[in-house]
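Session log. Operator J.P. requested a structure for one protein chain; no other inputs attached. Running the standard single-chain path with token output.
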Amino acid sequence: MTSQHLTSASSSLDRLRALRHLIRIEQETETKHRAKADINVTPLVDVVLVLLIIFMVVTPLIANGVVVELPRTEHHAKKADDGKDIIVSVTADEQIYMGSRRLASIEELVAAVVREKRVFPEKTVFLKGDHRAPYGRMREVMEGLHGVSIDDVILGTEELTVKR
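Structure written below.
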């Protein structure tokens, strides 16, 4: 081999090395500036869990009607709250409520229930009577409802936890 061939071969080799070096530098800068395509779902999961906890805490507090201590029975029929009931409550001090609205008299209650039944005929009356409320007051409410042909009344009770 002549010296001229060696010189051209080494210059070709130098050019090839320089080209490889430029390609390597280009690839390194591309990987440094390339946008990540991964989505970080950890913050999303955190937010969803917090919302779940909030709903679990708040849901029992959202009750229809006023709070009354229902009588306890052994043979308690569980009925899920499907939102299709007209909640009527009688408190220990004989106050009458429809939902959370206090009513002055049984006549006012009957008129409000009749209006509600006219709009939503499939609704039933769910009567929640405090166990300390006088039986006579509960009987007056039931007679008032029966007097306007409302016969689908459910009496609310709680499950008796300790058997006697």
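Operator note: The first strand starts at residue 72 and ends at 73.
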